């Protein structure tokens, strides 16, 4: 049993079923979220990024792969938060105790650790001042200096619509 923000305790299976039935035609809705995701400590920003990046999907038997780059002959990102190899490397360089390999980003819990390390490195007060959700989302989309790139504004609008 778990508790949702001081609400009565909820059974995982019941909460998951409520989530499934509260969505239409398999399209995730922003008002509810599966209970089994809550033990990952998902905050509203990570939840919104998860929705924008992979539609809230989780890797099951098949990894969630990002755009294919024919020049590099590889997918540019993977996992529920669509993490690139460069972002994974930066996160591990900053927080080496995360450990793991790039394919571990297929797991939501590991992806969240990578996200948090990346934010700790690039959305620090020293670099950006007060790191708002907008700044973090834009850095996630556009790299270390994404928060100042105009090209990341539409991404922020998508993320904001899920918060």
Structural description of this entry:
This protein has 163 residues and is mainly α. It folds into 2 domains: 39 residues, no CATH class; 119 residues, Lysozyme, CATH 1.10.530. Helix content is 45%, strand content 5%. It contains 8 helices and 4 strands, in the order E-E-H-H-H-E-E-H-H-H-H-H. A two-stranded antiparallel sheet has the order 1-2. Strands 3-4 form a two-stranded antiparallel sheet. A hairpin with a 4-residue loop joins strand 3 and strand 4. It starts with a strand and ends with a helix. 31% of the residues are buried. The N terminus is likely disordered.
Helix content: 40-55%
Structural class: mainly alpha
Can you list the strand order of the major beta sheet? Answer: 1-2
Count of β-strands:
4
Mean of residue pLDDT values: 78
Order of helices and strands: EEHHHEEHHHHH
CATH first level of the largest domain = Mainly Alpha
What's the number of domains? 2
CATH fold field value of the largest domain: Lysozyme
Per CATH, the architecture of the largest domain is: Orthogonal Bundle
General shape: globular
Topology:
Blueprint: E1 2-3, E2 9-10, H1 12-21, H2 35-38, H3 44-54, E3 68-69, E4 74-75, H4 85-94, H5 108-122, H6 125-128, H7 133-142, H8 153-161
């Amino acid at each position: 049993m778990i508790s949702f923000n001081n609400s009565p305790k909820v059974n995982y299976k019941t909460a998951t079923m409520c989530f499934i039935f509260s969505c239409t035609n398999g399209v995730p809705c922003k008002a509810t979220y599966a209970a089994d995701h809550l033990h990952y400590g998902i905050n509203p920003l990570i939840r919104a990024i998860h929705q924008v990046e992979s539609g809230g999907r989780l890797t099951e038997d098949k990894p969630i792969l990002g755009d294919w780059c024919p020049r590099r002959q590889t997918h540019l990102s993977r996992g529920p938060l669509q993490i690139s190899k460069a972002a994974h490397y930066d996160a591990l360089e900053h927080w080496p105790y995360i450990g793991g390999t790039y394919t571990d980003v297929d797991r939501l819990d590991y992806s969240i650790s990578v996200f948090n390390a990346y934010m700790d490195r690039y959305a620090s007060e020293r670099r950006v001042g007060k790191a708002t959700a907008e700044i973090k989302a834009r850095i996630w989309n556009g790299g270390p200096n994404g928060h100042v790139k105009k090209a990341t504004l539409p991404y922020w609008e998508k993320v904001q619509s899920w918060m």
